[in-house]
Amino acid sequence: MSKAPGAPRRADALSKARIVEAAIEILDEAGDGALTFRALASRLATGAGAIYWHVADKTALLTAAASDVVDHTLAGGGDAASPRAAIQAVGLRLFDLIDARPWVGAHLAREPLQPAGLAILEALGRPLEALGAPSRARFEVVTALATYILGAAAQNAANARQGPPGRVREDELAKVATAWAGLDPKRYPFLRGIVDQMAQHDDREQFRAGLNLILRGVETLA
Amino acid sequence: MSKAPGAPRRADALSKARIVEAAIEILDEAGDGALTFRALASRLATGAGAIYWHVADKTALLTAAASDVVDHTLAGGGDAASPRAAIQAVGLRLFDLIDARPWVGAHLAREPLQPAGLAILEALGRPLEALGAPSRARFEVVTALATYILGAAAQNAANARQGPPGRVREDELAKVATAWAGLDPKRYPFLRGIVDQMAQHDDREQFRAGLNLILRGVETLA
DNA sequence: TACGAAATGGAACGTCGTTCCATTCATCGC
DNA sequence: GCGATGAATGGAACGACGTTCCATTTCGTA
Fold it and tell me: What is the pTM of this model?
């Protein structure tokens, strides 16, 4: 009687959307390593095999999950005062997203050409011509921005992998700082010289500074 | 009688150096996914358990392998005409290394603070003060450079993962280009506009262009 | 020559992604 | 109304992996 061929078999029927939603919950609660087809099946009260009817494999699952949260993050952008501010805003929004959900950064760095990656390129590229970048350099400039942002994402995700429990970032920094301080001064004079800056730096500010460096470089092209 | 406690039991005795060497061979020949403790044991004509006497785990093995090839690559640097040329040379040497051995890029992006990562920061940092970067910004500048370089490394490694057989890079680009051309013009106007640049770009030139953007930005700080 | 520690290598464990397949259920032609 | 068809399900099973365990061998030393 019902015309929809996809009429649900039960109220809580499986669907790609529901699977991705559950996957995101697991990733947010317990991180990268906790996303398992068994854990996912358990949370959805089904078998692991059933999931494969809706999702090709684990990579596709992570791609869909990353695309979901990235699209949502990028959509939240109001209009900025200047093209430069617009690009900064996109970068910082992505930084904050990956700071909160490191698994996005890890996956994005591993598979850059997924839908989420395209959305990032598009969001970065729009304000670009207004910034004054010559049109023939646009490809090089967006990819440079994306490379930097995704690189920072990967490293942030790597940092987050060791110490998940909350306020231990300072301890981690202190540990790295003492490790650097113990380095051979003959082989690592430069690192020894910036130990203090390293110990006191703020990740978000560091990211913003690097982004500004690229933007300054772009402005010299105009 | 012999004073060395570590005297080899046989001529082809196991050692960390020999294990790392064999691991590098496997990685170079068959890529990331082929490095297995079983495959490694088979190549060394021993058991998987014996390897653990010399190496803590797989991460440590990859870290040692990456450190080996990165140190070797960085050591090959002659003196450059200018500090700017020196930094460009370090970047391009690393790009070529990772282009030839994508597994290095994949591991470096996943674990940035290993010995290899420190060597990269040191190599980038030395020419920096001569470039005119204010000393209080040195930390931000090196990490920005390293973030960009390691980001490009990760993406290059990701590209290499799909099509290992030699001269198919052009085909890959063409495939991505037609995919972009088929994108919804309403949602992706910018990407549609740079499809041609994307189809014709050269990876190494693109990398160099992004590096130059950052270096220009640094020079505005002086 | 006998002993203890370094070193070895193969078996075994637990977990993962994925495949397979018997079974269920809603739909559609008769 | 009623089987037939195919979408959808879920649990068992497969093969491979990283890692652990342990019986055994080998060597320096007493």
Answer: 0.93
Contact list, A122 vs chain B (CB under 8 Å): 187-191
Q: Which of residues 148-187 of B touch A (CB under 8 A)?
A: 148-152, 154-155, 158, 176, 180, 183, 187
Give per-residue pLDDT as tens, A208-217: 999 999 999 9
Residue numbers of the domain that contains B92: 80-219
Domain contains A54: no
- Closest CA relative to residue A87, chosen from A142, A150, A136: A142
Residue B54, domain member (yes or no): no
Based on the structure, what is the number of domains in chain A? 1
In a domain, A124, yes or no: yes
- Measured to protein CB atoms, the chain C nucleotides within 7 Å are 6-12, 15-21, 25-28
Encode pLDDT of A181-195 as tens digits: 999 999 999 999 999
